[in-house]
Amino acid sequence: MDNNDAILKEELKQFKAEKEKIRKLVGQIGGRQSELHDRIINITFIFILISLFLADISRHFFHLDLPFPTLFSLELGILLVSIKIIWMLHRQTKVEHFQFWILQSIEFRLNDLSKKIKNIEKILSK
Questions:
Q1: Distance (Å, rounded) from C-alpha 123 to C-alpha 117?
Q2: Residues 46, 40: Cα–Cα separation, whole Å
Q3: Residue 2 pLDDT exceeds 80
Q4: Do 80 and 45 touch, CB atoms closer than 8 A?
Q5: Residue 123 and residue 125: Cα distance in Å, rounded?
Q6: Of 58, 84, 100, 113, which one has the greatest count of Cβ atoms within 10 A?
């Protein structure tokens, strides 16, 4: 009985270590801090794009003479949207890598369990 308790305690220790490792990885990839960071970046992009749009609209409706050329706001807006798309692709790649890592970890654990079950079946069949 003491041997079983020791084995269970060791497995519990390994489980807690894996749980903590996964928690740290999730935090690196997309925890609360990155949500706030994403929100700030999104608000900044939206603010800049709306400012450019309003400046260009005010130029045409109120005939203002702004210090930048007419198409500059359009070009800058396209650049900002392109940067945002590239940034979103980068974030998605990180998420997909993490999902792949989790699936690979699950597969490894299933293979390990399968080997243990086969060993137990061999022992029981003797």
A1: 10
A2: 10
A3: no
A4: yes
A5: 6
A6: 84
